[in-house]
């Protein structure tokens, strides 16, 4: 296979590295990529939101599989254009990608499919938003209906803050979903689908808040870990039965089969599993941790999904180690990240046993120096016999890096490693509790991963 990966970030770097390890993949290229990806495979400039440009590049390169990483090209119809050109593509059509592009649409699908999720109302103006906030009460959960790069959600006890977020979405021409707050820890599960059949990957948990203790504003993700030793043994089977397959069947019934990764963002509440959100692609930074443990060749799995052959795909095999990914972000991220600062220590970090460094927002300046080019700059992934060892490896790698004003959390997977995370009815007891003194904008749930 000759594979073209579309996207610029850490998720795409993780996919590229996994494809390079696949003996059945003869060539990997990326567009547009970043400085780290460019050091490993050829990269190409492309407007990923221009479907015609993506098709033209794939034809020029003779690609036999195109893997679309980010959500924006999917929402623009890049997968549709590739499929129409007869090029196998891993990624859903524009219509199927509405599962992520519109949270209201996702709620409609879940209602039709009988998928358990939070109660919600759609609001298009301040009056409707205020009514919904009062109906559900605090903690308030307000979500931008459209794409927001993982940062369109506000969870707060401050009604004024919640209403202000809704008003900012209205001012941008959008709508919002206002939901009931879900107690319990969160889990990310990637489900690979060919439109009829589905294969789950290993569950992971990510950390959305910028600061330790799940404080501060939401980000695109500051770290993740897998596996989750505190999950019930039947968790994945239950998600497949109650969430993934009903959703995939409903999309097929509507004539818009879902081909790609159905990212299931889930809460383990006192009432059972509830869907927080769907995404239509691999999540970032969970992908960096999950793919670090995958032994099964990735290219074959994605090609099987793209060509409707997942029922013949081999059973997935996983490394026994745990994986922890820690994100290094730029100064002032997520508000106004500082770009162009030199980055040091990457080679030293990667030389450590059990450590890999994946580039997210990096480039080369005119002098050839590696510099920051985005809010999230690098993800350091540590592998170890357990979460303690994986955390130790990841943070030893982080300690080797140099970036002026760089930010990273020091508590990724800490509570899980200490055995302090449980389900809403599990050993941690108060995992769904909301501290009465929680500052506005802080994460209301006591368990890591909450948003």
Quick overview of this protein structure:
It is built from 15 helices and 23 strands. The chain is of the alpha+beta class.
Characterize the biggest β-sheet: 5 strands, antiparallel
Mean pLDDT: 91
Overall 3D form? globular
- Portion of residues in beta strands equals 15-25%
How much helicity do the residues have? 25-40%
Number of helices: 15
Q: What is the gyration radius calculated from CA atoms?
A: 21 Å
Are there runs of 5+ residues with pLDDT below 50, and where?
A: 424-451
The largest sheet has its strands arranged as 11-14-17-22-19
- Determine the structural class based on helices, strands and strand pairing: alpha+beta
- Report the span from N to C terminus: 39 Å
Total beta strand runs = 23
Give structural notes:
There is one protein chain. Strands 11-14-17-22-19 form a 5-stranded antiparallel β-sheet. Strands 2-1-3-4 form a 4-stranded parallel β-sheet, with helices on both faces. The model is unreliable at 424-451 (pLDDT under 50). The protein is of the alpha+beta class and 451 residues long. The chain is built from 15 helices and 23 strands. α1 (10-20) packs parallel to α11, α3 crosses α5 and α7 crosses α10. It has helices at 10-20, 35-38, 51-61, 71-76, 78-84, 98-101, 103-113, 126-136, 159-171, 235-253, 286-293, 298-306, 346-350, 387-400, 414-417; strands spanning 2-7, 27-32, 65-68, 89-90, 120-123, 140-144, 153-156, 176-179, 186-194, 198-200, 205-206, 209-211, 215-218, 223-226, 259-269, 272-279, 322-329, 343-344, 355-359, 362-364, 370-372, 376-384, 402-403.
């Amino acid at each position: 296979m000759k594979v073209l990966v579309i996207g610029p970030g850490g998720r795409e770097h993780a996919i590229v590295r996994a494809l390079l390890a696949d003996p059945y993949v003869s060539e990997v290229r990326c567009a547009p990529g970043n400085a780290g990806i460019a050091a490993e495979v050829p990269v190409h400039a492309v407007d990923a939101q221009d479907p015609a440009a993506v098709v033209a590049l794939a034809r020029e390169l003779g690609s036999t599989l195109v893997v679309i990483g980010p959500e924006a090209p999917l929402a623009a119809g890049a997968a549709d254009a590739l499929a129409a050109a007869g090029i196998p593509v891993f990624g859903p059509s524009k219509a199927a990608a509405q599962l992520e592009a519109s949270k209201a649409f996702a709620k409609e699908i879940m209602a039709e499919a009988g998928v358990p999720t939070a109660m919600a109302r759609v609001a298009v103006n301040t009056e409707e938003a205020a009514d919904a906030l009062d109906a559900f009460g605090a903690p308030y959960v307000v979500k931008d209906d459209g794409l927001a790069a993982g940062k369109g959600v506000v969870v707060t006890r401050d009604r004024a803050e919640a209403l202000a977020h809704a008003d900012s979405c209205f001012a941008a021409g959008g709508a919002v979903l206002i939901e009931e707050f879900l107690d319990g820890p969160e889990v990310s599960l990637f489900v690979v689908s060919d439109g009829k059949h589905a294969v789950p990957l290993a569950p992971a948990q990510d950390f959305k808040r910028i600061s330790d203790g799940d404080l501060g504003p939401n980000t695109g993700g500051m770290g993740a870990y897998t596996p989750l030793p505190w999950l019930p043994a039947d968790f994945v089977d239950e998600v497949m039965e109650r969430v993934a397959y009903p959703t995939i069947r409903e999309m097929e019934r509507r004539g818009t089969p879902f081909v790609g990764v159905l990212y299931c963002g889930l809460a383990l509440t006192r009432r059972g599993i509830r869907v927080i959100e769907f995404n239509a692609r691999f999540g970032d930074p969970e992908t960096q941790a999950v793919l670090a443990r995958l032994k099964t060749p990735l290219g074959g799995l994605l090609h099987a999904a793209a060509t409707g052959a997942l029922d013949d795909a081999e059973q997935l095999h996983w490394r026994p180690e745990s994986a922890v990914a820690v994100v290094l972000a730029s100064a002032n991220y997520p508000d106004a990240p500082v770009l162009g600062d030199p980055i040091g220590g990457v080679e030293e970090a990667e030389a450590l046993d059990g450590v890999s460094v994946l580039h997210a927002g990096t480039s080369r300046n005119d002098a050839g120096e590696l510099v920051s080019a985005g809010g999230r700059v690098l993800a350091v992934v540590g592998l170890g016999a357990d979460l303690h060892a994986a955390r130790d490896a990841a943070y030893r790698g982080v300690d080797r890096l140099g970036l002026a004003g760089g930010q990273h959390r020091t508590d990724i997977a800490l509570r899980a490693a200490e055995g302090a995370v449980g389900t809403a009815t599990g050993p941690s007891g108060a995992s769904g509790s909301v501290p009465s003194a929680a500052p506005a904008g802080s994460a209301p749930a006591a368990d890591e991963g909450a948003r």
